[in-house]
Amino acid sequence: MMKYTKEEILQQIKGNIIISCQALPEEPLYVEEKSIMYLMARAAKLAGTPCIRTNSVRDVIAIKEETNLPVIGIIKIEYDSYDSYITPTMKEIDELVAAHSDIIALDCTMRQRGDGTTINQFLKEIKEKYPDIVLMADISTYEEGINAWKCGVDFVGTTLSGYTDYSPKIDGPDLELVHKLSQEIDIPVIGEGKIHTPEQAKQMLDAGAYAVVVGSAITRPLVIAQRFMKVIEEA
After folding, report:
1. Rg of the chain's alpha carbons, rounded to an integer?
2. Is 137 exposed, middle or buried (0-12, 13-18, 19+ CB in 10 A)?
3. CB neighbours of 128 closer than 8 A, spacing ≥ 6?
4. CA distance 162 to 232
5. pLDDT mean across residues, the chain
6. Element (H, E) at 72
7. Which residues of 209-227 are buried (b: 16+ CB within 10 A; e: fewer)?
8. 164-188: pLDDT as tens digits
């Protein structure tokens, strides 16, 4: 199974849209017997995306086999006493490395970690165990982005803005966060979170994002349908 270098990924994603193809167990497109997310990824590749973000080992493997594109792998899992749920422990890192994820994304907020470590300690442990790993930090605030950058991650994503108790609650992408981080750090800022339209994706790039991740607006039909229904019901 092909694995891309960081330099190859950087060339491919610059100024482009990364499509997130995920389905959690409680969602309509989740099938217990076999992943069908590779079909979403097939459509995303045909549309021209240079990279896919996905959740779970089985989807990382299936999507890499289907598309031969670089994959940002995550594992969403909830543990007692952990506020973070995106790739929160070394167990998930190990599994994503074994699945040949080209980039591994993880929660790099300052929230509570059940094992008592800080995110800085966790990142140090990961890099000691896997010196060549390519990491994307999912953050919710400017301070968390700066901290992750100082810890040596390769990409900072605004994925969690609006999803922590202390980050801005807006119905749209956090353009200000993207702009501030892109002015301050020398690694790519990936604009992600609450991008509902193509115009908003372009605004993210205009604000300084190196690339943009779009998921729900493209690959989650229940969420898309609910947005339409909500507008009609309110009218």
Report:
1. 17
2. buried
3. none
4. 25
5. 97
6. strand 71-74
7. bbbbbbbbbbbbeeeeeee
8. 999 999 999 999 999 999 999 999 9
